[in-house]
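chain below, 68 aa
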Amino acid sequence: MIDGRDQGTIFECGVAYAKNKDIIGFSNQGFRMNVMLAESAKGFCNGLEGLEGYLRSSNVKKYQGEIQ
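prediction:
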């Protein structure tokens, strides 16, 4: 979630990008991207419906481990 542009979240996006992990931007407030986030993310979703639609349409693997 990139709302508020939390520095920790932005740092984590940078690490994920450096490790070739997919980054999906999610916002409940709409987007005003900086160039670093805009160019590093695989995609962007508006609201929970947008995120749900993305997850359903992609080949994201579901968690298979134990739930606490």
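The first strand starts at residue 24 and ends at 27. Residues 9 and 19 are 15 Å apart (CA to CA).
thats it, cya
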